[in-house]
Amino acid sequence: xxxxxxxxxxxxxxxxxxxxxxxxxxxxxxxxxxxxxxxxxxxxxxxxxxxxxxxxxxxxxxxxxxxxxxxxxxxxxxxxxxxxxxxxxxxxxxxxxxxxxxxxxxxxxxxxxxxxxxxxxxxxxxxxxxxxxxxxxxxxxxxxxxxxxxxxxxxxxxxxxxxxxxxxxxxxxxxxxxxxxxxxxxxxxxxxxxxxxxxxxxxxxxxxxxxxxxxxxxxxxxxxxxxxxxxxxxxxxxxxxxxxxxxxxxxxxxxxxxxxxxxxxxxxxxxxxxxxxxxxxxxxxxxxxxxxxxxxxxxxxxxxxxxxxxxxxxxxxxxxxxxxxxxxxxxxxxxxxxxxxxxxxxxxxxxxxxxxxxxxxxxxxxxxxxxxxxxxxxxxxxxxxxxxxxxxxxxxxxxxxxxxxxxxxxxxxxxxxxxxxxxxxxxxx
Length: 429
What we know:
Blueprint: H1 2-32, E1 41-46, E2 49-63, E3 68-70, E4 76-81, E5 88-89, E6 94-98, H2 101-126, H3 128-159, H4 165-223, E7 225-227, E8 232-234, E9 244-245, E10 254-257, E11 262-269, H5 270-278, H6 280-283, E12 288-290, E13 302-306, E14 316-323, E15 335-352, E16 357-359, E17 362-368, E18 374-385, E19 388-393, E20 400-404, E21 416-419, H7 423-428
Parallel strand pairs: 1-21
Antiparallel strand pairs: 1-20, 2-11, 2-15, 3-10, 4-6, 4-9, 5-8, 6-7, 8-10, 11-14, 12-15, 13-14, 15-19, 16-17, 17-18, 17-20, 18-19
């Protein structure tokens, strides 16, 4: 009996010990079990309805519209070269100086010829020869008057036999000679007067021609100093100092490129051009120019010209725009993209491109709903605006769209949302 009691007590002790050991192990196991992980972090943006301008981009190239070839107007050897290649020059700046001596001599010769003609004209206007002829005429008329008086006095005396017939004959001959002399001197006066008028007219015409010759010589002397016809950036010289410049040379001396404004040509399709024509404000909208390094040119441009026909090979039409370029940042021949507002979409929502998942023909986004639970939404997009897409269907204002962290979550999972800051917004700020 005692032995049975001892065995029973020992069994009970073992059972209690085993139970305690089991409870201790279970408690230790519970203490070592890991806690549940926190919800993953995701970056979200809250979409809002707004008016969004739709921008279109077209490849473009800069060019200088009024490039000028500098040429010589007269022949001569270059004596001075007064600019550096790539220098900014202004209209009227001296670029070259030719050998001026031949043209200075031509000017002096023209001035001397003109002075001689002016003296001849002054002499003709004083009518010295005419005055002499008129004096001779007056003397002949006086002699004729005396001969007439002698004749009139002798004629009655001869009738009365108071004078000899021979004296009357002599008086008649003297009268006739005086009349002939008067007529001759009168003709000489008329001839001299006509000659004087002709000389005055001829000398005046000669002086006009000599003034023109002097002006031509002065122009040639002026042209021997070659100046910049326009302002702009000048190229290298193609004729060195000592080289011969000819007025009819095929090769220019250098080239000047105007840089302000700078012109950009770009092409649009026929349908795009028709859209522009239907909305004339688009043709007057300010243009943006994106350069090769993806930076935006600070100045805005405007469309100035449209070519008169569509290219049959490409189906495109060339447009030409002018951009202010006061700092001469742009040079002809650079490539870029012309950006223009082609439409204003009203009351639409924008979603960053990296938030949109494309699966075949279906587009979806992940949103964070009530309780921070992830939901899958099918959407329909329209145009792309920068780094965003316009969403036409599938979202409503106030929805929170996951932009970063989509690969870490699944629909129905709980997440911890953080606000999204776009690169464009950071750059703009």
